[in-house]
Amino acid sequence: MYKHYQDALAICRVHGNPQYFLTFTCNVNWPEIRRYVTRYPVLKAQDRPDIIARVFHMKVASFVNFLRNNRPFGNVTADLYTIEFQKRGLPHCHLLLWVAETNKITDATHVDRYISAEIPDPVIDPELHRIVTDFMIHGPCGTVRPNASCMSFGMCSKNFPKAYQQSSMIDENGYAHYKRWMTGNTVLKGGVALDNRYVVPYNRALLLHFQAHINVEYCGWSMLIKYLFKYISKGSDRIRFNISKGPSSADTESDTTFEIDEIKNYVDGRFICPHESAWRILDFHIHQRNPAVQVLAVHLQEMQGVTFRDNDQLENIVRNPLSRRTTLTEWLYNNCIDESGRHLTYVDFLSEYKWDASSKTWLRRITNRTNQRLGDLSTYTQCVVKRSTCVYCCHTKKVVDPSRTFAQFLERYAQHTVLHVKGLDY
Ligand SMILES: [Zn+2]
Fold this sequence. Notes:
- This protein is of the alpha+beta class.
- The protein folds into two domains: 2-232, no CATH class; 294-423, no CATH class.
- The chain has helices at residues 2-15, 31-37, 49-69, 126-135, 204-210, 225-232, 249-254, 262-269, 274-281, 314-319, 327-337, 379-386, 406-413, 418-423, and strands at residues 20-25, 76-85, 91-99, 151-152, 155-156, 169-170, 176-177, 187-189, 192-194, 214-218, 287-290, 293-296, 353-356, 361-364, 374-377, 391-393, 398-400.
- It has a five-stranded antiparallel sheet with strand order 10-1-3-2-11, with helices on both faces.
- Helix 3 (49-69) packs across helix 9.
- The radius of gyration is 27 Å and the shape is globular.
- It binds zinc ion (ZN).
- Zinc ion is lined by residues 138-139, 141, 148, 150, 156, 158, 160.
- The site of zinc ion has 8 residues, from loops.
């Protein structure tokens, strides 16, 4: 999960903050699911998590394509999504969207072009009115329904009802407050009339196309980007418990020790609902991002990690020259023999070169650069280097000031090209 979080930060480094946070939830009434279920009158959609998983998988692919090709938020530069499974609910997809500089929001009222939070007029826009009333109304909750699932300590945990808002604005914390007029339009849910204060923010084009619950939030001005990334990459809920007898006097006397098996504890404590099981059996992606992120190794000389199988011969591994190669060693080597990449920093090297994992070499790109992979420094090695105090500069082959930590060296090194590194006073 931490790797996905790092990937998101790598995209941020190149494209800035994401602009939109979307939550796309599966709808069991989609014709693709109904078509199957109606053939068997006793069957409910939830009885066939495999059908739901297959249909939702196709819908998510179509959702991402729609965002890129139909451009309801403008030109998309990057996207990243995670599939999540509620305990007894349907699968849903959390997606972060980055848009081109020209499509970014510069004035709070421009949010209205992309996001609405009001009940549409049933006469002017009957189709949208039907979808919003079916999928995008929160509640009832609060004092009229204190036992609603969203209620926590007497309050709605999603902060509904929202306040009426004359025009969209973004507060000092970067949270967007969408336009919600007091129009008098209401929707009857569970015998309670709910107005614009209960509408979950949505995008018109997405709702009309996908006929499902699709919550859209503007997050371009939010400073809580790390929280957002952690939220979408937090993984499934886990719970662990143990029922045991209290130690008997005999145990205490013999000083019995208990073995802790952390892997078994993890597997025992994991909660997997039928939808997640089906999703994993069908081998669908839980995380996806575009552009892809290449992890760049960072290590001390001769301290690179080597991957091998259980039955591999140690001698063969040591003799194999490929096993020593990493993105870092080959970047240094490439810059020795090829001048054309020396103006690029290590993390920017991927803009003009691609890493060929089979031959473990950097190859110059010949295709366009729009879909390039992004570089992300290996976090594992960052943990290692933090403990290191003796630093060796691989390119200049000099031992650098031992009073500096390698992390300090790296911080400086990552921001310079090879030519600059040569001139550094390490
Ligand atoms: Zn609520």
